[in-house]
Structures are given as structure tokens and as C-alpha cells.
Specification:
alpha+beta, 4-stranded mixed beta sheet, 20 strands, about 15% helix
């Protein structure tokens, strides 16, 4: 094994200086878009890292190139009236998948020897943050992607859509790039390792690191000798604001720069740093204080012996894609109305307008029942129900969002207001 004495301080300093000119991505602040919700991005990253750590996997470090890829796909999805579900949500403008996009000139994601040996994957959802995590955990392909130990870096796009977001996360790993992340509160440093099967087939990249050495920002050693690789090691007290981790597998080495102000483990509750671009904006002028209107329940259901109507009762557009009403005889997800004959061509569940509604009634009706006065525009209606499926006429029925009950309605009430979380 190469020792520190054989390397020499001068060679190490050259390595430290060399890493400074290699494009790196300590955080997402360097890549921005007017639609990117950075707080939502950090929220979903915290939940993903919490999930990974619960399984004994290393947390993700943010990478600018992966974020640019995520934003590229999310921008395309945001331009669509009806965002596709299933695998089609990952198809891009030309029908390409994430691995094909990664080879675009503006991304040029590194691979292990050959383009087909690229360590990259993508997950996506149009939901609330918790709804997205619940969906990814319940979906085998998404769960395998998130829990793949070979992935070390991530880029996330979070675009506001109704009450939730369009989330696109691109996960990846690069040859000889082994990030390290600081847990400042506990004085610990998370190390990563090369766990891609592609690396084991190729040279001269580092394979599985078994030892590490720490250096300060000037290239001075922070430990007397090599130490055994561990998933978590103690953070040196005299590290300053930056340190370097030198990984080795006995024949190859990889050097990683760690900025202790930005290369930190993001978990739920993390307070992101301010966007530096905000400092370039002119100071806002205080507007006159207006008397706020009291909030009101977001969903209003009106039902009787002829029909059931679901109304956006809020003063803003809502994401109702994951909403459904369920009784003993039937379940009616709002997606059931997407293919309704004669539906409004602008019918969109992800941004359902305030005051608009959908309505259902029996196929035995000779004419469409009148819509309630609270409904401004009936966006879609369906009449395929049988009388036996009128679950809102007896007992109680539930209103669910992303599979979680958010309200229970009494049949005798004929009206029901539901607050969304």
C-alpha cells in the first residue's frame, strides 16, 4: 500500500489543488430555476435520507448535474395537462429514458467504461411529500432504486402542483467519486464506498475502499496513519470548515473534498441555507396589511338520492389526484372522472380550480341532475353507477387522500366538509 511518506505533502497538495478544478457539486444552490421549490426539495431529500439510514445505507449527497437532469424532466412534465402515470412518467420529450438523457451533452454523466455501464436511476411522483414517500415505498421498482447501495449522489426537482409537487429525483454514482457528509451535531463523518458492480469489472478505478486518511484544507494530515474504512467515523475537532478524505483499496485512490458548511447530512427538519440568488433581488416593498379571510375546508361534498358532487371549496387550486371517496358498496377515486364522456378539455386533477366540481349519478337518470349552487363549473360527470352503488345514502363513508382517511361523512347530513392535511 502507498503510505503518506511515499506520497509526500507536496504530492498531496497537488491532489488537493487538482480537486479544486474538477467540477463538483456540494449543493443544489448552484443550480436553480424559477419553478424549483428548494424548501420542498430539501424536505423530500430529508425523507429519502431518513429512509436510507433506517436500512443501514449511506445518505445521499446533492449533485448539480443530477439536479439539472431532474429539473429538465420535471419541466417537461409540468408542461403536460395530464401527467402520465407508471413508467411513462420517466419518458422525456423524445421518448428517451433517464440513461439516454444522461448522455445528452449538457449532462454527460460519467460511466464505467461503456455507456451501457452507467450507474443512474430515476424516481418520480406527483403528490405531497409524504404521499410520494409512501408511494415509492409501496412500489417495487421505486423501492429498489432508492435502496440501491451503489447510488451515492442525488438531484431533485420539486415543482409546485396543486396541494403537492411534481417530484423528480435522479440518483447516480460516478467512478472514483466517493462523497463524504458531515453530521455536525454528532461530530461524525459519513463515508461512502464504491459498491457498483460495474466498477469491479473495470480498471484503473478504485473498487471497494478499505482504508481512509483525513487532511485539512492545506493538505496537512488530521490522523497519524490510515484508518479502517467505516460507514461513520469521528469528525476531527480541528478540521476547520473544509477537509479532504483520501480513500484507498490498496491499489487505487480517490480524493473527496468535504465542505463542512454544505456537505452535510440532510434529514427531516433540516433548515436549508438561503438561496444566494435571492440576494440579487431588489428589496420588497411592504404592502398594506389586508384583513385575512378565515380558512375554510378544502373539500365540500353534496349528495342526495340522485347524485354525489365533489367540490373544491378552497380559494385556491388543489391537487386532487390522490383523492377518493369510499363506502361499503363502492370506491370512487377522482381519477375515475378523467375519462368521463364530455369532460371539460381543461379538466386537470393536479390543479383543480376553486369552486369547480365533479358529479356522479345513476345511469337510470333521464337527465343530468342540477349541480349544487356552490359549484361554479362542472368539469366532468359520470352516470354509470347503479343504485346499489350509492354508498352515500346510508351510514357513513370516508374521504381519503393518498390512501389515508382525511374525513368521514354522515349519509343523513347530505353535506360534508373535509379539511385536507
Amino acid at each position: 500500500m502507498v503510505t503518506l511518506k511515499q506520497i509526500g505533502y507536496s504530492v498531496l497538495v497537488v491532489l488537493v489543488l487538482a480537486i479544486a478544478i474538477i467540477p463538483s457539486a456540494p449543493g443544489a444552490a448552484q443550480t436553480t430555476t424559477s419553478r424549483q421549490d428548494r424548501a420542498a426539495m430539501y424536505e423530500i431529500l430529508g425523507l429519502l435520507n431518513e429512509w436510507r439510514l433506517s436500512l443501514g445505507l449511506t445518505p445521499f449527497r446533492l449533485d448539480d448535474t443530477l439536479e439539472a437532469m431532474a429539473i429538465y424532466q420535471a419541466t417537461y412534465l409540468a408542461s403536460m395537462r395530464n401527467i402520465p402515470d407508471g413508467p411513462d412518467i420517466h419518458k422525456g420529450r423524445g421518448g428517451e429514458g433517464v440513461k439516454e438523457r444522461a448522455l445528452f451533452d449538457q449532462f454527460n454523466w460519467p460511466y464505467y467504461g461503456r455507456p451501457e455501464q452507467m450507474q443512474i436511476g430515476e424516481i418520480a411522483a406527483v403528490r405531497t411529500a409524504q404521499g410520494a414517500i409512501t408511494f415509492w415505498k409501496s412500489s417495487s421498482p421505486h423501492r429498489r432504486t432508492v435502496t440501491n447501495p451503489a447510488y451515492r449522489e442525488i438531484g431533485i426537482a420539486a415543482f409546485k402542483r396543486g396541494v403537492g409537487h411534481i417530484y423528480v429525483a435522479v440518483l447516480g454514482a460516478r467512478p472514483n467519486v466517493l462523497p463524504a457528509l458531515a453530521d455536525i451535531e454528532n461530530d461524525k463523518l459519513y463515508l461512502t464506498n464504491e459498491l457498483s458492480g460495474y466498477a469491479a469489472q473495470q480498471q484503473p478505478w478504485l473498487h471497494t475502499a478499505d482504508q481512509v486518511r483525513l487532511f485539512d484544507s492545506e493538505g496537512r494530515p488530521l490522523s497519524d496513519d490510515w484508518i479502517a474504512w467505516q460507514e461513520m467515523i469521528d469528525l476531527p475537532q480541528d478540521a476547520g470548515n473544509k477537509l479532504y478524505v483520501l480513500y484507498t483499496d490498496g491499489s487505487a485512490e480517490a480524493l473527496s473534498e468535504v465542505d463542512l458548511t454544505t456537505d452535510v447530512v440532510v434529514l427531516p427538519g433540516y433548515e436549508p441555507p438561503p438561496d444566494p440568488l435571492l440576494a440579487l433581488l431588489p428589496a420588497a416593498t411592504a404592502a398594506p396589511t389586508a384583513t385575512p379571510e378565515p380558512p375554510r375546508p378544502e373539500i365540500l361534498l353534496v349528495y342526495d338520492g340522485r347524485s354525489l358532487t365533489i367540490i373544491n371549496n378552497a380559494r385556491r387550486s388543489l391537487d386532487l389526484y390522490g383523492l377518493e371517496v369510499a363506502g361499503v358498496q363502492a370506491r370512487l377515486p377522482l381519477t375515475w372522472w378523467l375519462n368521463a364522456p364530455g369532460a371539460d378539455e381543461n379538466f386537470e386533477l393536479y390543479a383543480f380550480p376553486p369552486g369547480d366540481c365533479v358529479q356522479a349519478w345513476s345511469f337510470t337518470e333521464t337527465s343530468a341532475p342540477r349541480k349544487p349552487a356552490e359549484c361554479k363549473v362542472r368539469r366532468a360527470a359520470r352516470s354509470q353507477l347503479t343504485r346499489e352503488q350509492f354508498f352515500w345514502l346510508e351510514g357513513t363513508f370516508d374521504v381519503l387522500l393518498d390512501g389515508t382517511v382525511v374525513g368521514t361523512c354522515e349519509a343523513a347530513a347530505k353535506r360534508c366538509e373535509v379539511d385536507l392535511p
